[in-house]
Amino acid sequence: MTTHIVTGTQWGDEGKGKIVDILTEKMDVVCRYQGGNNAGHTIVVDGIKYDLHAIPSGIIRKNVISFIGNGVVLDPRQFIEESSKLLEKGIKVTPENLKISPRTAIIMDYHKVLDRCREDAKKGNKIGTTGRGIGPAYEDKISRIGIRAGDLLDKEILNRKIKAALKEKNALLVNLYSAEPFDAQELTDHYFELGKKLAPYIVDTDFSFAQFSSDKKVLMEGAQGALLDIDHGTYPFVTSSNTVSSYFGVGCGIPSSRTDDNIGLVKAYTTRVGAGPFPTEDEGHDGEELRRIGHEFGTTTGRPRRCGWLDTVALRYIFEMSSFTSIALTKLDVLNGFSKIKVCTGYRLDGRRINGFPASIESLERIEPEYIELDGWQSDISKIRDFDLLPENAKKYIKYIEETLKVPVSIVSVGPGREETIIRKEHISVF
Ligand code: GDP
Ligand code: IMO
Ligand code: MG
């Protein structure tokens, strides 16, 4: 087996879908190992746009098997809807090209209702979740009252587990949130029917992903970004899974001791959807320009993304814990028109320079970033396919990032399309 990983190093939406699609040309298997349909991964091929949420981006390529790992939370109804939408665009999702682990946690209707009730109840400090039930589904998994994909296949087991879960859920919904309770039998009937549709995709319980992929080239498709990690991110303004690259082995059940490529995705500037600290956010003209030129609106919820400059303090913090073998630098073309490009090189707190990335959210909210300004290139780079042909100032920006993060850039993305990509083969093993 060879193992290749793609993860976001910021607050998500770095362009993982596109980069996964580029690498998938050389892969046998593409696996999602954490997160759920809170993710929105976009791929553009021959002008056709595909939005993937729960289904791995590998599905777009023929002869590639997509795998939904045990670390994922899966909403069966959404999965079926996403499959139908793909079919409308000529992409068939079949039990041959998509497999689901029986250990995958299931997002139930009560998780989605709870997610929204909680957000509504938080007056001033909403997290701004995607409302897809992600947090409540992971809570149940950790509390050991979750429903797993394999449970959907046996009506009796399913009913017993739903009844047990509803004892708490209904008490919360009715008494705390004044919401409607769920009926155990109705839910069982409904999810058992969904289970019948999912059954052909759910792999044999006794057959592990490690066995399945032992002779294959496997690409791990991370969702979200490292700064949204439940442990290492800007807690509590994070998602409910581990998004750092080191989680991949746990999230699908393969050894994580060796990776052939561990690619950290860095968007050439920074964005964030939802609430939480964002030291380099630019609420003025530059931020608006980045949003307009980069079309920074959420793939999942359509919300405008908050925008700002590259933050090398946050990136160094993530890179120190990640053992990346190379960087995929995305959306570099969005900076085409800027005469000056700002980069955050340090943090000040209460007037003093600090080292590292604060764990305390209260400190992060008060950070004053220190910037340097690099000269822009002010020309269109979207047609360039050869690294050497990039304008000098674009190369200087890339070199600055490489030197700061001590990892080489293997892929430069200069547009959303599959072909709008520069690959430096010397820094990546698959090409
Ligand atoms: P993901 O969640 O990391 O997969 O990223 P999203 O798909 O949510 O957001 C990235 C957006 O930028 C999508 O609309 C992509 O089509 C687009 N995109 C990806 N790479 C590039 C690039 O290099 N340049 C430009 N202009 N757009 C890009
Ligand atoms: P991709 O894979 C950007 C954010 C939400 C919210 C927080 C918690 O497309 O990069 P959740 O619904 O997960 O409980 O919401 O996390 N968030 C994302 N932001 N990209 C994503 O995924 C995200 N998935 C969740 O906006 O702030
Ligand atoms: Mg996205």
Provide the residue-averaged pLDDT.
97
As a whole number of angstroms, the C-alpha radius of gyration is 22 Å
- Provide the helix percentage: 25-40%
Main sheet characteristics:
9 strands, mixed
The name of the CATH superfamily of the largest domain reads Adenylosuccinate Synthetase, subunit A, domain 3
In the sheet with the most strands, the strands line up as 7-5-2-9-1-10-14-18-19
- Reported CATH architecture of the largest domain: Alpha-Beta Complex
How widely separated are the two ends? 16 Å
Number of strands: 19
Structure annotation, total helices = 12
Q: What class, by secondary structure content?
A: alpha/beta
Oligomer: single chain
Pick out the low-confidence regions: none
Q: What bound compounds does this protein have?
A: guanosine-5'-diphosphate, 6-O-phosphoryl inosine monophosphate, magnesium ion
Name of the top-level CATH class of the largest domain: Alpha Beta
- Percent range for β-strand residues: 15-25%
Q: Based on CA inertia axes, which overall geometry fits?
A: globular
